[in-house]
């Protein structure tokens, strides 16, 4: 049966709402309308937005840190141009990791296991209208309550495009396999993470352990690292569902070849890069990025130990799984990795 013109228009509208074409790299055709959409003032103490402070701030032009971040942006663009043949459309679901600060004009793409708890705490202070003063006073579990922060996926398409064009967009990344081991340690070796044990551990043990005990099958509490690796590389895993955010690739969480990030911070230079962003924001002197006092943090030496019992065949396949993150963010192949 042939559809009427009105029905076709309704169908097209519905389909269009499922796909978000991001045109933030183009100039606005109606800035006044977008200003009305924003309905907020996010200029810092200097009267400039963080984005203006980054690209037009005299105090940053000659700094070595500014040069470092320019090199990171240039590399990101170069790798994206080389490996991305076709720009795909973003969906609202692609934007759920982008935390919005309408007070200061910030978009932060959070990556689990890259200091995202502390950065969410800082974002709560920045957006809290005085409710919070010290990031460390905010309990870690409260930082992960979805209602405490807004994500870009909650906004209309005109509001999304405005923010992508005019807000400072930043991301923090980490050596990919170190981040992976950190996720494994946190989710599978801590007794309190029973939800992950039941949700993922039982499945991993059922598929990748020979002769598992009834207790392991029921609780999923003793997943071995090599079993976790087999699970990640099993084609059935991603056919069933996307990776969990704690071990998903950064380029799949934050889409750096579609969304043009202004600052790429690194876990290895966390304090320096975080303070740089807070300076761009013009944050109050009392807003400090929390310093870490952890002595059990996953580092390169610890990561190397986890790979001692992984065969070169699986090491190579695992590296290839995370290869794009290595290329985009300028990480070298770890010396402990045996890929031949």
TrEMBL record:
Asked whether the keyword Lipoprotein is assigned, the reply is no
- Keywords for this protein: Carbohydrate metabolism, Glycoprotein, Golgi apparatus, Membrane, Signal, Signal-anchor, Transferase, Transmembrane, Transmembrane helix
GO CC term (a single one): Golgi membrane
How does this chain sit within the bilayer? Single-pass type II membrane protein
Q: Provide the leader sequence positions.
A: 1-29
> What is the protein's name according to its record?
Carbohydrate sulfotransferase
Annotated PANTHER family: CARBOHYDRATE SULFOTRANSFERASE (PTHR12137), CARBOHYDRATE SULFOTRANSFERASE 13 (PTHR12137:SF60)
Could you tell me the Gene Ontology terms of the biological process aspect for this record? carbohydrate biosynthetic process; proteoglycan biosynthetic process
EC main class here is transferase
| Family to which this protein belongs | Belongs to the sulfotransferase 2 family.
